[in-house]
Amino acid sequence: MNNRMLQSVQKKYNKTPFYLFDEQGFINNYNEMLDAFRAIYTKYQISYSYKTNYTPYICNLVKRLGGHAEVVSDMEYELARKLGYPEEQIVFNGPVKGARLEEHLENGGIINIDNYDEAKRICDYATLHIAHQYKVGLRINLDVSGVFISRFGFEPESEELHKTTQLLKDHPNIQLVGLHCHISRARGIEAWRKRVEIMLKATEKYIDGVPEYISLGSGMFGKMPEALEAQFGSNIPTYKDYAKAVIKPIADHYSHIPEEKKPILYTEPGTTIVARYISFVTKILNIKTIRGRNMATVDGSYLNVGEICTLKNLPVIVKESGQDRHHYDAIDIMGFTCLEQDCIYKDYSGELAVGDILTFENVGGYSIVSKPQFIKPNSPMFSVNKEYEVKEIMREETFDDVFSKFNL
């Protein structure tokens, strides 16, 4: 985000806090990833993760760029449909699919089954509609790091996976056509290589013939400001690095297959393509020192910027207020809530003053979608395009937004 973007929004909305979406930066990043992967495998397709940031303006932008929708709930599914997505461009994942599952199945949408009970539910529906043919996929549980045991999908070679595949085969109007996987906390190249290795072996074992699709989920590093990238270490892969390690083995595996019969290869990026392109703008309201601890309180909260601020110090840009400034070797930037843990930035070093405008970068992932209606409503969001035109894409929440659902 550059200073001109901030100035453009402040001319339209002269208060804080608010979110700022860099539309052109998002587009450029999206296309860079897409081009790097399609240069190796032409049937690669982005399926954007709605749970990461389901701002409708951004989801619709993905649609205009040719991306598909990856949803994990009825709410997200309904949004994709309202945006005009055809069923075959909506990938329905998740461990607890809602009442719209059967509608999506009936209309030819992509469904990746998470567990045996969900498979049984689909089979029961198919039995009642025996004249119709249905296609489904399965989520494969991965062990690529040993850091934790994922709770999602089917463990390869497990009794549950065997029982589920047999259940599907026993239904003449159900066809298993694809496999899906996703795992968190494993963004490195080696973990992704192992992911591909496991998935290719699984397709050979559980899919009859060439699959219609393989979905590798998400979890790649995206573009980051240098100050944040340094906190992850020096070996941050580029999109071309991922393409060489992840896309090429699949391209090689299916090189003997005619182009029209090769599987679609999905990844489901969220944070990877959106995180850097949303910033959160907030103002310092007061500064104080208690028992040697310096604290600056702002009108935003750690709840506005997402979990990442509890793990890393987000890059922050300071716009000076013109008031008397003081240099701090270490000062915590605290949020408006009554929670002791509401710290957006730990041990900031530099000059600050009351009235300074702080812009926290890289907050596009799991921030807006995770913000609770706690103490005060959420902030508005503005999009700035390459001509620096400003559009409000999420209005400020109101008292009625919070309380109209309660019975008085």
List the helices and strands and how they pair.
Layout: H1 3-12, E1 18-22, H2 23-38, E2 44-49, H3 56-64, E3 68-71, H4 74-82, E4 90-92, H5 101-106, E5 110-113, H6 116-128, E6 134-139, H7 159-169, E7 174-180, H8 189-206, E8 213-215, H9 226-229, H10 239-253, E9 264-267, H11 271-274, E10 278-290, E11 293-298, H12 302-305, H13 308-311, E12 316-319, E13 326-334, E14 343-352, E15 357-360, E16 381-384, E17 390-394, H14 399-403
Parallel strand pairs: 1-16, 2-3, 2-9, 3-4, 4-5, 5-6, 6-7, 7-8, 8-9, 11-13
Antiparallel strand pairs: 1-10, 10-11, 10-15, 12-15, 13-14, 16-17
Helix pairs in contact: 2-10, 6-7, 8-10
Describe the fold and architecture.
Helix 2 (23-38) runs parallel beside helix 10 (239-253) and helix 6 runs parallel beside helix 7 (159-169). This protein is α/β, with parallel strands linked by helices. It has two domains: 39-269, TIM Barrel (Alpha-Beta Barrel); 276-403, Lyase, Ornithine Decarboxylase, Chain A, domain 1 (Beta Barrel), CATH 2.40.37.10. The chain is elongated. The chain has 14 helices and 17 strands. It has helices spanning 3-12, 23-38, 56-64, 74-82, 101-106, 116-128, 159-169, 189-206, 226-229, 239-253, 271-274, 302-305, 308-311, 399-403, and strands at 18-22, 44-49, 68-71, 90-92, 110-113, 134-139, 174-180, 213-215, 264-267, 278-290, 293-298, 316-319, 326-334, 343-352, 357-360, 381-384, 390-394. The model has no long low-confidence stretch (mean pLDDT 96). 31% of the residues lie in helices and 24% in strands. It starts with a helix and ends in a 5-residue tail after the last helix.
